[in-house]
Amino acid sequence: MTVTQPDVTVVIGAYEAMPYLVECLRSVEAQTLDPARIEVVAVDDGSTDGTGEYLEQFAARAATHVTVIRQENSGGPSSPRNVGLGKATGRYVFFLDADDRLAPEALERMVAMADRNGTDVVLGKVEGINRVPPKAAWVETLERTDVFHSNIKFTLSAQKLFRRALLERHSMRFDESLFTGEDALFTMEAYLRADGVSVIADHTCYYLVGRDDGKHVTKSGSYTLRFDSARALMNLIAEMVPPGVERDKLMLRPFLVTLLPQFGPKYLADSEQVRRHKFELAKPLMAAHWTDEVAVRLKVDERLRLELVARERPELLLDVVEFVKSKKRPDAVVERRGRRVYLAYPHFRSAGLPDSLYLAEPREARGVEGYREGGVGVFLRKVARKVRRALK
Question: What pTM was computed for the model?
């Protein structure tokens, strides 16, 4: 008897997942894709709440083929995902968190999209249930794109369809030394190695569920783990992408999503010791990867905060963070017949800081009365380069 290879292996890593696991598995059973074309590999990572037993009950009754693996707790999501990936036989792999749910047509639509376009990664639109989902990537459906010409760099979670041949060809696995951001590292590598990426933005494929107990993995962990995550992602990008504009496009993501929040409102509540430690952790990252092209892609307050970190000016940073937390709007200084708009955050035209740090790019400047669009971005880049060369 010939055994047909499944189209997709759904890998479910589960730890203390009850009762959310019930709806998760129901969403797998509800798939419109033929059950014979689906394989499930579920890994119970040392649960004590009945998760493992429920997975075994599901395997006994499910129409699709289900493999259940039970192991001692590993302390993070990487190990169960890697174990599941090692057992997968499908043409594609989808990593489903045990708290979340698939939309009924998710697997059918994603497999069809990948087959139609020959793409190696497919992003299905995500909606949130008691959680705020990422939004930047779902502007439009894209049959074929890449990480440099889309916003997919802002959604690096693992809940995507991956061509298994791509993962095996490059021996890709989740980094078990990271306890947060391991999915970002894995997904960014897949984007960079992929022969095309597809985006389904006109149909919800995945429901990101917020647990009532608040025990979602991305909410846990100390600030040092965030720096570990940022460092790993920046190093990966630097290793795989040559210096230049394309590298800087990708570096925007770890600076904006991972590093910047460490110097946001929570920074005000940090002890002086923690603040100093954050600056120490950030120093080598800023020295290695903070460039003019990254800076100009940020809003003024974001750029200003990170530049103060790069310049090691914690006393100035506190004033800026307090201003940002207050949600006050900075005064706008309009010059050059409306073609330049400066947002006067703290220390504007003082403390030896260049005006270029406060210069709004068009997306921010358009809301200012008297602004005339034209040439701001070019001017800002030129000024920033001159400032950087002078500092060096």
Answer: 0.90
